Amino acid sequence: MKAKTVDKIATIILYMISFFVILLLAAFVGYIIYKGKDSLNFKFLFGNPKIDEPGGGIGPQLFNSFYMLIISLLITIPLGLGAGIYLSEYAKEGKILNFIRLCIETMASLPSIVVGLFGLLVFVTMTGWGYTLISGALAITVLNLPSMTRVSENAIKAAGAKVKEASLGLGATQWQTIKNVILPSAMPQILTGVILSAGRIFGEAAALLYTAGMSAPVLRYTRFSLISKASPYSLFRPAETLAVHIWKLNSEGIVPDAGKIANGSSAVLIIMVLLFNVIARIIGNKIYKSYSGK
């Protein structure tokens, strides 16, 4: 067969595979949203859950998911980005660097249930905090830190190869080059790591079962503020997230309409992930364009 014919066949096959992946994702998202569309209303999104009667909401769990997202990213991004900068710009090749990379790869391969048990031992028991939001955030950080570090390291290396020597040649210091030239150029790839970390936070249940707990304070909305006897903004309180709530509904099934609530919660969760991905991409592209002058 001629090279052009083989190239066309390969291109068609790859297009078909790509289309199948997109179709599979669309079918998956569409099915989840269709099953839970009846619950997508204000009362369900901001109402409190009920134990022995139907019609409960997911207000506390939704709040906990966003709160867990913010706290976890505030811990993960500086640590992961700092580790990526060190490995790509400051660390020298050798046994120490190889050992660090081995530790990162080992952490990346840990099952979430193992990290949850580690969090139960260290963040819950040894610290004396109990089942708290900060314990869950630290456990999620342990899960997300390896991927965030690897993505940051690769992004900085790829971006730095083009602009590092030019910046240094113009008299900039190494830190000025990293801060003002390399990091903005690597922003789209770094943002990919942030999105992956956020998806893990939204969807993780196993690690949070043993660290953040399976209960949530009842939140009450007033005209001016969000009030709760358990202080919803405290880091040292139980924080059942939406993914844990879905697991509990499907495993215990105490609530009369557990299936309906679980379907609605799943639809909300998948919509949250999609919205976060789109918003993060838009913000990342604007930051990149502002630095690159495009």
Write structural notes for this entry:
The chain is mostly helical and 294 residues long. The radius of gyration is 23 Å and the shape is globular. Helix 3 (59-90) packs antiparallel against helix 8. The longest helix is centred in the middle third of the chain and has 37 residues, at 133-169. Helices cover 73% and strands 1% of the residues. A two-stranded antiparallel ribbon has the order 1-2. Strand 1 and strand 2 (226-227) form a beta hairpin. 35% of the residues are buried. The protein has two domains: 1-39; 41-292, MetI-like (MetI-like fold, Orthogonal Bundle).
So how many helices? Answer: 11
CATH architecture grouping of the largest domain:
Orthogonal Bundle
Radius of gyration: 23 Å
> How big a fraction of the residues is strand?
under 5%
Task: Output the CATH homologous superfamily of the largest domain.
Answer: MetI-like
How many domains is the backbone divided into? Answer: 2
For the biggest β-sheet, the strand order reads: 1-2
> Might you state the CATH topology name of the largest domain?
MetI-like fold
Order of helices and strands: HHHHHHHHHEEHH
The total strand number stands at 2
CATH class group of the largest domain: Mainly Alpha
- For the residues shown, what is the average pLDDT? 84
Major sheet attributes: 2 strands, antiparallel
Rough outline: globular
- Which structural class is indicated by helix and strand composition? mainly alpha
